Amino acid sequence: MERQIWLHRAQRGLQKASERKGRPLTAACITFGCQMNARDSEKLRGMLAEIGFTITDTEEADLVLYNTCTVRENANTKIYGRLGYLHSMKKKDPDKIIALCGCMMQEPGVIEAIRRNYPYVNMVFGTHNLYRLPELVACVLESPQEQFIAILKDTDEIVEDLPKIRKYHFKSGVNIMFGCNNFCSYCIVPYVRGREKSRSPEDILNEIRTLAQDGVKEIMLLGQNVNSYGKTLQEPVTFAELLDRAAEVDGIDRIRFMTSHPKDLSKELIRVMARNPKICRHLHLPLQSGSTRILEKMNRRYTKERYLELVSEIRSAIPDISLTTDIIVGFPGETEEDFRETLDVVSRVRYDSAFTFLYSRRTGTPAASMSDQIDENTMHDRFDRLLTLVQTIGREQTARFTGQVMPVLVESVNTQQKDLVTGRLGNNTVVHFPGSKSLIGEIVPVRLDECRGFYYLGTQARSE
Questions:
Q1: Whole-angstrom Cα distance, residue 381 to residue 388?
Q2: What is the pLDDT of residues 416-454, one digit of tens each?
Q3: Which of 78, 289, 317, 385 could make an SS bond with 294 (beta carbons 3.0 to 4.6 A apart)?
Q4: CA-closest candidate to residue 362, choices 151, 183, 152
Q5: What Rg, from alpha-carbon coordinates, does the chain have?
């Protein structure tokens, strides 16, 4: 009820502002970071549209909202740089509304820095109270000279039924849980996203059914660690059980999920994936390091040997699965021997692709205060060697389906060549092939004629 009151106040305030401007006002939500942030931005755009803004994707908009990331230090630097750019625009248009939300806002010291250095920012809120956007917009429209800041340290509340504007009509993310309890020693996410809390299975399944009715063919179940889903529910449900039930929803053709923590990946989940063709043959399984000694320092709670056993179990049950991963290079105390252990795992697992990162020191995490930080030259040398190996193996892995006919979900007209369309296989590999925009959102059979490293060129095949 309170949310509706604030929504009406925001709508009235926007109407008055539009009358003063003599035109409808526009709003843009610019997303930084992960799939969780992208899904949050769909909700933010939905609320802005509900208020009455015309949604756009340009920073020329009357309201610009940055949904921020803080996983790496340069993410913060990028936001501060963009704020300087917006400040120059606001000098020309004092009515422009500048808003910040997301993970960076939950980081200690950021709010003080915004108050001190960026007084022209109109409103700031965090990851736990996105639903308050209409309230904050109403306050800004009523008192444009004030700065409104609303940050919650954590919450157990999950607000359902927020409006959304999806980026794609044929695929959608679905949050199944929020927060993280893992506290990897390098990671700031548990501090900015809060403790784990799971949505009820019925709320999730109802959302999936609604998406199916709306024509969505592919969903991605989202959580910082989906494998620990359900532990906070009064009647615990495992992620494998949820996945099985999601696959029963008519109209959904593909199901993806991320991210999976190796310590919680169950045999039950492997069995569910193996027996259900709707579940994509792709698993993102972060390694972070191949050294058991470094994994212990990272607080990852598995060993190199256990990780390799898990990969063997997965490949035995699902031989055609594509595995991808995350790897951090240069974690404090990493020796050349530790790094070679990582290269060994990459060689043995043979990932289709890997996101490789230089260790980023994040204030407030245990790793930031470790004394044995690695120098930049050593980190970059190891990073280059790892990247060479990852790319060599990745090209070989990607090419193994050459000549086969496989279903492709068409996502867009190719940006470089307009007579081609671009889509993805179930294993997430990109495919380009001749076609028109009428195919967007369709799953079509495509012959994979030529592998070009990490993508295919193909031709549409006849449906059998």
A1: 11
A2: 999 999 999 999 999 999 999 999 999 999 999 999 999
A3: 289
A4: 183
A5: 23
